[in-house]
Every structure is written in structure tokens, then in C-alpha cells.
Q: What sequence folds into this?
């Protein structure tokens, strides 16, 4: 159907060019299948009708097929710059590099909804495909609930935000020329984030299905955990990538701004982290059932909130929301039905669930309960800080208020620090009842090291806030306690290395995963703390030849040169960096101007090492009066340890991956008795 | 072709729902055998933990006991809960399978646009060449006009302005029209085009400069429809909605025949009329069309001073002029209707029918609710009696 013809007559042979309409029709078919799937299997589970329950499997495959067809159709329209599709007109341009044309498919509101729905149906089909060990009734109910979400999204898309709206005759070219959004990091950011958001949908569906069925047990928790892990990993990677993008591309030198758009992705992450841990208790001890179900519901609810709130423009202003009331009302309705409905179901059914295993106040269960409580509180803090300005604006009739980093730093960090302390002890605690004095005894040495490490930093660094040192001490504590727990498990230095090696390879991968992830958080904390507490920043007017010293570096500003790029021109500053008189490197920050798009971007120059980043950006002279004649605004930052953030994030994701690869956790996990007896002990 | 693809897709959709009918399930796992599997696995894990020394012997025994107790509870529960699975309900599956294509086609019939082709950017080279050619010619025209020592002919500037308007370059268009507007020969149309360009350049906002242009256009020709229309827009933006509505309706009332601009007048009048609770108006009330005599009232008054022969010759010459013009402009629907009317007044029934039939062909492409359809039908019926 793709025509590459360069024939003069563009109207000739139009019959074979119908992909946008095929995409539109495929979406209608997907909606029809979702409607069937949302009714038939769940009725089948109720009436124990095997045929109806099985229909879920095939309609889930059908949905993913048709949504894929639609997605590819839209992508084709973007790739060929088919400006008869309104979405392409508004979000692309014939001159865009191919990669960004492809990424344009999910760059817009409509396209991102389509991607969302695609991932949703992929997860549904994955459950249908890999969940052969899940009881038929639970699977049927789960897939029906998943189809309800599908129906919500497909109707929202088809009736208020259709990606296949057409324009005829087509305009001569597309309208989007935004150079800032043409970035690889940004192109990959939404898919990862969405994979996380939507991954939690399947956990939500499992939770609602379990509530309907009225039973949650160890088996249920085990089926749910891999999905939770997969979603959590994607979300972690998505958030880290977004933060990395902001750091390198925006030219502000910050990696987290407590911006509402960031917060709405962070909240499901916090909740999802709690869910991940809560599900362990449900699996191992048959306890925390209500917690796990509630967390599953809340995590997905926050994902929905995140998707919709960003998409509706509600965050920029309540006013923007009112501009498109049709969309806004639909969103509110959908949120009310899904969140309100599932919570009401929870309120009704949760009390009927049987209580699980008992435990003492000092036990691993209790430790994970603290984890649940703290993470939930932290989520509440972020939610409050994010939504309060909106309520304020709505209540006062338009007065604006901004809740920024000071609030979050003051409210969020003190809530999270006790969690870091608990994280150090938690893995040492045993199930049911634990011996706290014994654990603390084992951690004496770790505590001592943490204090010593902090003192060493205090001696080397020139001052800093108390909270900074406290956080640092806890990061040391967490890192070393995690390593200590791992060495204890494998009995490192307690016998021959070969014994330790054997023990390490005998240890389940999920145990290694936990160690890696917990250590990863500590590593990321070093980055958070270093780049926040000991960050140095200089903003000044400089004349060529000026010398600036920052963070132990000497920076000389050699001047600015006008350079030309493919579709922009730039003022490029030249800086020479040296330390103790020794030449290190040159930095070339640019200020690019794109004449066609009439916009400018900052291309910062960074000298990146493990110890820290030297970060330079340049701007036009503030004014052209005599005092600043020939001067430039130069901004130089030194951010110690900032790269530890990305390293730590990568460790978190890898840890999740290791845990996911644990064969006991694999999808369709439980082994049969026969397999158990036949198996070699090695795992 | 497109419908074939839709039919194929729908068939696939139908099969996806209908498939369970053919395949009998072989992988029905029920709670009864899967839950204990998980618990057995846990039992195994406790053993391994004990081997590794992660837990003590006493802890392991306690854990094993608890897990065994759970296995027992579980199997008791499933024994109670197990009911026969049924496999009826085939009719519901068939019905659901039929629903899929029915829903998709039903939705698509309302929301789809099968008539719009998809056109890749690379296939539009001809169009782009055309656009480039127009842009090139426009630039040439602009150069010629600006280098002309006498300032360039007014026709040239008007052509340039109209081209710019079509290209969406309204500010440039306003500049071109503005040059002619300063000249003594500027007509009402020049000022109304200037006003239109100025308003379009400001995304529909009537600026003071546009108001001045509208006033000039109205002074020169109070009946200039474009001037009247933008005057109404200006009034409405000032808040004088009633006055704007009156102005539009008055101009409609003064129309002697159907003109394409009347449709936008009626639409605008109805749009603003709802804001002040005026009853909606219909185009049919304002388009006299064939009921109006061919020659205008003025022509007839002039003709009354003539002798009978002279008068007949005058009317014939008018009619012939119209007929000759229509040979050159055969698509002029209103012209053919007027000609038909003129012949009928002159009593030339055959010619009248020929002219009206031409109009009928042209009218077949007009919208169903075009009021001219009704008048034409009546006129033809009268002639064919």
C-alpha cells in the first residue's frame, strides 16, 4: 500500500493510499473486540462457562493485532509525511530527520494515547499467552478488567482525540518545527515511561479480578510479581532517562525540578515500589493482602492520573483544562469510574479476605510494613505538593501559586530518610519474629564505617548543611549494610573463596537483584547529595579573556564565534579548562538559533567525570548598553558526583532485571511437583 | 478496494471471537492444582534455605508446618468450590463474533472518511512545483510592480494582493491592496478586499485600520456585500449584535437574485442571531431568482420611453448579450436561470426550456437544500404545461 512513486500527478492512483483509514477502521475493530472481552469472559467466570472464559485469550490477541495495525498506519503517515492526517500536520514536518518523524508518532496527545493503548493490549496479550498456569477463572476476570481499561482508552481516543482525523486538501507542509523536542532521549522517554505506567494496569486488573473473585493468596501474589517488576523497571528507566534528558538538554544543569510532570511519574514509582515489597509478604507469608491489593489499585490510579493530568493540560493551568471541556470531562469521568469504582470494590470486598500469617512487631513483615507506610506517606506528600496549586487556583478563581523544590525538599526528604535507615536493617530481619539486638550487633561495624565515611567527607569538603551530612551518612549506611548482608549470605571471608563462590551461585537471582537494587539506591543517593549540597554555580557577564575559578578548576573565556549548522546558526563560546596550571580540556557551549522555527536552544558543554561534571552554558548579552559591550552571560556549574545518579538508576533497573530473571518468578512461575523432585539443587 | 480491506480485517476480527468454538481447550488449569504448586515450591525453598544456613532448624520446621497447614486448607476449600465446568453458550459467542464487524462498520460509517486518500509528501512534487511556480510568478510580479517608475498599474497590485490572500500571506496582501486604496481610482471592492486582508491577518479581529477600510468601501458602494459583511462583523465585535443582524438581513432583502455570498450572510446572521434570540432565517426567503424579471427595473423604465419596435429590439439585444456571454461562461448557473426567465417573458417557450435545462444540469451538483432547485422546478413545470 505504500507508494513511493514520484509520478507527476499526485492525485493519480489514490485508491491504493488508504492506510490512515485502515488504521482508523482497525481501531474501531479493536474497540469492538475490547467490548466483547469486557463482558463475555467475566460472565463466563461467573457461570463457569469454559468457552466464554477462553474467548478472552483470542480477543486479547485480536486487540493487540488491530491496535498494532493502527499504530503502524499512524507511523507510516508520519514517515511518509502524509499531511492529509491532521495529527501529522500538527506534529511533524517534511524536513524533520527520519528518527524524529518516527518518534512523532507518539509525540502528540493522540499518538501517545495510541501508544498507551498499544502497550495496554500488549500486556493483555502477554497474560493470555504466558499465563497458562493461571487458573482459568482468574485469568478470564483479569483479562475482562484489562478490556474495561481498553474500552475506556479506545473510546476516549475515537470520540475525543482521534489520531486519524483527516484534512483535505492537505496543507503544503507540517507545522511542527520545535528543535528542542528533537532529541533522542526525549524520543525514547515516553515509550519507557508508558511501559511502566501501563505495566501496572495488568497488576490492577489482577487486583480487581481477585477482589471480584474474593480470594487473594500466595499463588496470586506470585503471578502478579513479575508483572509488577517489569513495570517498575520500565518506570525506573523512564524516569531516569527523563531526568538525564533534562540535565543534558535543557541547559539548566538540574536533574530534578519537582516539576508536576516529573512528579506524576514519580508517584506511581513510589507506590509501585511499595507494591513490589508488599507482594513479597503476600507471597511468602499470606499476609498484607489488603495492602497489596490497595497498593496495586493506587499505583495504577496514579499512573492514570499521571497520563491524563499531563495530557489534559490541567497542570499548566485549570484554565487550559477548560479550553477543551469535552476531553477534560471525559478524563474526569474515566478517572472517577476507574479509581472510584476500584476503591469502592475494595471497600466492599477487602474485609471478606481471610487474614494471613501473624507476625511480631520486630520481623521482616514489620520492616516491610514500615516500607509500605513510608512510601505511601511520601507519595501523599508529592501528591499534595503537585495538586495543591491546582485546587488553590480553582478555589480562588484564578490566583496562581507555585509549590517548588523548597516544599518538597523540606517535606519529602525527612520522610524518606527513615526509610533508608530501615532499608539497611530490613534484609537482616527474619520472617515472623526477628532478633533486633542481634541484627544491630551485626551492623555495629557498618554503622561505624558510615560515621567515619561522613566525617572524612566533612573534613575534605568545605561545610554544608546538617541535613546533607545526615543524608550522606545514611547513604553510606545503606550501601555498606547491603553489601554486608550479601557477604554474610555467601559467607565471604569466612571460609575458602570457592565456598563463597558456590554459595553466591546458589543464591536465588532475586536475592542478588535485591542487593544490586538496594546498593543502587545508595549509589544514586551519593549523586543526589553530591550534586545538591556541594554544587557550585557562577553566573556572570564576561569579556573575552576573563578567568573564572570554580570547584578547583580555572576556566578562561576565550570569546564567542558565530558558526553555522544545517538548519541553524549558533554563537559558540570557547572556554579553556585547567587545574593547578595544567591544561585539561576545551569547552564549547552554544546558543543555537533556528530561524525557520524562530526559536533558540541552549547546547551546554560538559566535562564529565566520575568525580563530577563541569557544565557550561552561554547566553546572549543581557543588554547592549556600554557596560556590557562585547560581554556574554556565562553560566558555569560544578556538580560533584552527579553521574552516580545515572549509575545508581542503572543498578536499580538491573537489579529488577536480575530478580525478574529468577526462574521461580518467571511468568507462569509455579513448578509442578514432578519438576521439583527431578531438579538439581543449583538454581 | 478500501472496503475489501475492511471486509478482510472484519473477518479476522470475527474469527478472533469465534475461534474458541473450534478449539477445545487443553490448557484449563484450575485453582485446585496451581495453588498447591506454589505452596509446594515454598516448601522446597524452606529446605534450601535450611541447607544454606539462612534459617535455623527450628525456624524451618515452623515454616514447613505453616505451609503444610495452608496446603491442607487450600485443598479443602477447592474441594468445596469445585463445580462442573460448562461449555454451552455457543450462541452468545456467535452473537459476539457478529457484533465485532457490525460495530466497526457502524462506527466507521459515521466517523470514517473513506473518500479522503492518503498522500505521501513525496507524491506531491507536482503540487509543490505548482506552488513554487505561483510563488515565483508572484515574486516576478512584485518585482515588476515595485520597479515600475509610475508605481505599477492598479490591476497588477490587485492581482498580487489576491494571490497573496490565496497563499495565506494576508499581511502582504493588505500591503498590496493598500497601495491601490491610496489611489483616486480605488473602488469599493478595493477597500473591502483591503479590509478582508487586514482582518484575516489579525486572525479575525477587526482592527481600527480595517474599520477605516470598511467605511471607505461603504461610502463608495453601500451595497457592496463584502463591505456589508465585514461591517456586520465589526459591529458584532463592538457588541452591537442587533445592529449587525439588522444590517445583514437588510442587505439580503435588497438582493435581486441569488448570489453565492448570500449563504454566508444567512449563516452569519443565524449564528449571531441565536446570541440575541432572533428567529433563524432561511435563504429561500431572500432569493427571488427566476421570479424576478430578467432585465432590471431600471432597464424596463428606460425601455418604456422607447417605441414598441425599439423596446422589443432593446430587450432582444439584452437577452442576446446574456446568451452570448453564457456561450463563453457555460457554468454560470444564475445566468442560465435568468436567460430562461427572459425567454419565458418574451414568450419563447422552447428557448426558455433549453436554458432552464442547462441550469438544471448545473444545479444537479448544488446541495439538496439549494432554494434554486424549487424555483427551477416550478419554472420548468410552467414552461412544459
A:
Amino acid at each position: 500500500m505504500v507508494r513511493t512513486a514520484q509520478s507527476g500527478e499526485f492525485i493519480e492512483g489514490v485508491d491504493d493510499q488508504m492506510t490512515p483509514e485502515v488504521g482508523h477502521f482497525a481501531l474501531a475493530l479493536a474497540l469492538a473486540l475490547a467490548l466483547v472481552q469486557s463482558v463475555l469472559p467475566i460472565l463466563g467466570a461467573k457461570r463457569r462457562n469454559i468457552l466464554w472464559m477462553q474467548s478472552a485469550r483470542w480477543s486479547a490477541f485480536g486487540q493487540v493485532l488491530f491496535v498494532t495495525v493502527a499504530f503502524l498506519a499512524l507511523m507510516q503517515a508520519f514517515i511518509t509525511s502524509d499531511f492529509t492526517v491532521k495529527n501529522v500536520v500538527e506534529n511533524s514536518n517534511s524536513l524533520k530527520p527520519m528518527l524524529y518523524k518516527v518518534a512523532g508518532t507518539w509525540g502528540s496527545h493522540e499518538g501517545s494515547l495510541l501508544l498507551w493503548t498499544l502497550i495496554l493490549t500488549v500486556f493483555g496479550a502477554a497474560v493470555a499467552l504466558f499465563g497458562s498456569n493461571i487458573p482459568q477463572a482468574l485469568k478470564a476476570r483479569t483479562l475482562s478488567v484489562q478490556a474495561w481499561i481498553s474500552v475506556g482508552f479506545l473510546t476516549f481516543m475515537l470520540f475525543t482525540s482521534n489520531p486519524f482525523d483527516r484534512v483535505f486538501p492537505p496543507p503544503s507542509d507540517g507545522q511542527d518545527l520545535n528543535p528542542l523536542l528533537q532529541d533522542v532521549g526525549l524520543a525514547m522517554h515516553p515509550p519507557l515511561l508508558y511501559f511502566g505506567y501501563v505495566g501496572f494496569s495488568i497488576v490492577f486488573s489482577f487486583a480487581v479480578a481477585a477482589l471480584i473473585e474474593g480470594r487473594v493468596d500466595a499463588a496470586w501474589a506470585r503471578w502478579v510479581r513479575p508483572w509488577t517488576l517489569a513495570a517498575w523497571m520500565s518506570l525506573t528507566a523512564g524516569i531516569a532517562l527523563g531526568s538525564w534528558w533534562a540535565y543534558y538538554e535543557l541547559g539548566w544543569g538540574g536533574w530534578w525540578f519537582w516539576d508536576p510532570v516529573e512528579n506524576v511519574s514519580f508517584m506511581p514509582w513510589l507506590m509501585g515500589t511499595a507494591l513490589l515489597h508488599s507482594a513479597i509478604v503476600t507471597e511468602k507469608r499470606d499476609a498484607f493482602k489488603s495492602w497489596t491489593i490497595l497498593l496495586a489499585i493506587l499505583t495504577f490510579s496514579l499512573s492514570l492520573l499521571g497520563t491524563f493530568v499531563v495530557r489534559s493540560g490541567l497542570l499548566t493551568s485549570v484554565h487550559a483544562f477548560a479550553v477543551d471541556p469535552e476531553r477534560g470531562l471525559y478524563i474526569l469521568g474515566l478517572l472517577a469510574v476507574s479509581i472510584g469504582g476500584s476503591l469502592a470494590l475494595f471497600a466492599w470486598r477487602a474485609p471478606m479476605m481471610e487474614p494471613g500469617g501473624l507476625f511480631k512487631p520486630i520481623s521482616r513483615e514489620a520492616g516491610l510494613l514500615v516500607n509500605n507506610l513510608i512510601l505511601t506517606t511520601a507519595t501523599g506528600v508529592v501528591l499534595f505538593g503537585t495538586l495543591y496549586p491546582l485546587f488553590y487556583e480553582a478555589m480562588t478563581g484564578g490566583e496562581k501559586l507555585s509549590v517548588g523544590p523548597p516544599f518538597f525538599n523540606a517535606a519529602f526528604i525527612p520522610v524518606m530518610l527513615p526509610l533508608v535507615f530501615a532499608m539497611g536493617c530490613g534484609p537482616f530481619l527474619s520472617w515472623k519474629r526477628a532478633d533486633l539486638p542481634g541484627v544491630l550487633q551485626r551492623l555495629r561495624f557498618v554503622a561505624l564505617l558510615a560515621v567515619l565515611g561522613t566525617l572524612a567527607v566533612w573534613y575534605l569538603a568545605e561545610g554544608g548543611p546538617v541535613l546533607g551530612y545526615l543524608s550522606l551518612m545514611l547513604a553510606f549506611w545503606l550501601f555498606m549494610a547491603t553489601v554486608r548482608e550479601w557477604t554474610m549470605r555467601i559467607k565471604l571471608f569466612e571460609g575458602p573463596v570457592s565456598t563463597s563462590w558456590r554459595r553466591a551461585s546458589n543464591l536465588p537471582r532475586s536475592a542478588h537483584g535485591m542487593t544490586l537494587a538496594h546498593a543502587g539506591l545508595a549509589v544514586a543517593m551519593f549523586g543526589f547529595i553530591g550534586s545538591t549540597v556541594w554544587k557550585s554555580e557562577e553566573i556572570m557577564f564576561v569579556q573575552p579573556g576573563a578567568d573564572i575559578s570554580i570547584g578547583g578548576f580555572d576556566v578562561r573565556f576565550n570569546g564567542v564565534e558565530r558558526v553555522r549548522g544545517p538548519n541553524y546558526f549558533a554563537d559558540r563560546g570557547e572556554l579553556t579548562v585547567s587545574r593547578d596550571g595544567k591544561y585539561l580540556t576545551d569547552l564549547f557551549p552554544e546558543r543555537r538559533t533556528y530561524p525557520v522555527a524562530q526559536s533558540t536552544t541552549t547546547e551546554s558543554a560538559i566535562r564529565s567525570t566520575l568525580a563530577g561534571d563541569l557544565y557550561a552554558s552561554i547566553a546572549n548579552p543581557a543588554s547592549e548598553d556600554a557596560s556590557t559591550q562585547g560581554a556574554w552571560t556565562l553560566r558555569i556549574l560544578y556538580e560533584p558526583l552527579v553521574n552516580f545518579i545515572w549509575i545508581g538508576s542503572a543498578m536499580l533497573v538491573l537489579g529488577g532485571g536480575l530478580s525478574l530473571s529468577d526462574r521461580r518468578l518467571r511468568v507462569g512461575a509455579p513448578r509442578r511437583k514432578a519438576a521439583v523432585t527431578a531438579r538439581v539443587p543449583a538454581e | 478496494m478500501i472496503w475489501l480491506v475492511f471486509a478482510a480485517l472484519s473477518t479476522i476480527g470475527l474469527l478472533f471471537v469465534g475461534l474458541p468454538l473450534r478449539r477445545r481447550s487443553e490448557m484449563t488449569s484450575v485453582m485446585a492444582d496451581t495453588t498447591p504448586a506454589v505452596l509446594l515450591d515454598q516448601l522446597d525453598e524452606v529446605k534450601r534455605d535450611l541447607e544454606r544456613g539462612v534459617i535455623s532448624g527450628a525456624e524451618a520446621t515452623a515454616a514447613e508446618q505453616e505451609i503444610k497447614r495452608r496446603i491442607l486448607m487450600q485443598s479443602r476449600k477447592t474441594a468445596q468450590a469445585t463445580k462442573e465446568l460448562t461449555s454451552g453458550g455457543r450462541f452468545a459467542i456467535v452473537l459476539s463474533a457478529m457484533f465485532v464487524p457490525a460495530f466497526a462498520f457502524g462506527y466507521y460509517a459515521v466517523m470514517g472518511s473513506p473518500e479522503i486518500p492518503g498522500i505521501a509528501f513525496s507524491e506531491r512534487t507536482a503540487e509543490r512545483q505548482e506552488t513554487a511556480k505561483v510563488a515565483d510568478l508572484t515574486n516576478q510580479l512584485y518585482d515588476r510592480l515595485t520597479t515600475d517608475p509610475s508605481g505599477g498599474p492598479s490591476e497588477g497590485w490587485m492581482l498580487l494582493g489576491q494571490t497573496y490572500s490565496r497563499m495565506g500571506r494576508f499581511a502582504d496582501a493588505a500591503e498590496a491592496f493598500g497601495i491601490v486604496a491610496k489611489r483616486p481610482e480605488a473602488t469599493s471592492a478595493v477597500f473591502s478586499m483591503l479590509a478582508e486582508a487586514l482582518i484575516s491577518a489579525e486572525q479575525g479581529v477587526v482592527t481600527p485600520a480595517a474599520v477605516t477600510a470598511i467605511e471607505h468601501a461603504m461610502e463608495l458602494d453601500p451595497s457592496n456585500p463584502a463591505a456589508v459583511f465585514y461591517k456586520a462583523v465589526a459591529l458584532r465585535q463592538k457588541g452591537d449584535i442587533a445592529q449587525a443582524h439588522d444590517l445583514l438581513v437588510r442587505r439580503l432583502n435588497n438582493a435581486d437574485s441569488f448570489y453565492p455570498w448570500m449563504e454566508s450572510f444567512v449563516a452569519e446572521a443565524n449564528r449571531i442571531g441565536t446570541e440575541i434570540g432572533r428567529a433563524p432565517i432561511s435563504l429561500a426567503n431572500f432569493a427571488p431568482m427566476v421570479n424576478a424579471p430578467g432585465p432590471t427595473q431600471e432597464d424596463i423604465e428606460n425601455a418604456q420611453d422607447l417605441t414598441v419596435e425599439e423596446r422589443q429590439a432593446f430587450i432582444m439585444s439584452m437577452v442576446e448579450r446574456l446568451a452570448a456571454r453564457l456561450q463563453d461562461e457555460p457554468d454560470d448557473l444564475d445566468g442560465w436561470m435568468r436567460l430562461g426567465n427572459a425567454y419565458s417573458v418574451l414568450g419563447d417557450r422552447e428557448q426558455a426550456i433549453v436554458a432552464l435545462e442547462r441550469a438544471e444540469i448545473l444545479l444537479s451538483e448544488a446541495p439538496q437544500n439549494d432554494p434554486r432547485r424549487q424555483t427551477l422546478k416550478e419554472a420548468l413545470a410552467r414552461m412544459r404545461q
Notes: Confidence is low (pLDDT under 50) at residues 25-32, 289-294 of chain B. The radius of gyration of chain B is 39 Å.
